[in-house]
Specification:
- With 59 residues, this protein is mainly alpha-helical.
- The chain has a domain at 1-35.
- It is built from 1 helix and 2 strands; from the N terminus they run E-E-H.
- It has a two-stranded antiparallel sheet with strand order 1-2.
- A hairpin with a 4-residue loop joins strand 1 and strand 2 (32-33).
- The longest helix is centred in the last third of the chain and has 17 residues, at 42-58.
- It is elongated, with a radius of gyration of 21 Å.
Length: 59
């Protein structure tokens, strides 16, 4: 079995083609790190819904 250079050193890394390890870390191009949490913007998500409902009401 070949040693993956992205492995954290434990020898237990299982890394998929997208660079995600079974432990939850992801290759960022330089090192393995926990992926950034993407939180949806409530203000941005409500605006399109409000516009759609306003458009529906004005017809």
């Amino acid at each position: 079995m070949s040693e993956d250079p992205r492995c954290c050193g434990t020898g237990t890394c299982i890394i998929d083609p997208e660079g995600r390890c079974w432990c939850g870390q992801q290759w960022d191009g330089e090192k393995m790190a926990m992926p950034k949490l993407e939180v949806p913007n409530p203000a941005g998500s409500s605006a399109p819904n409000d516009q759609a409902s306003q458009t529906g009401n004005s017809e």
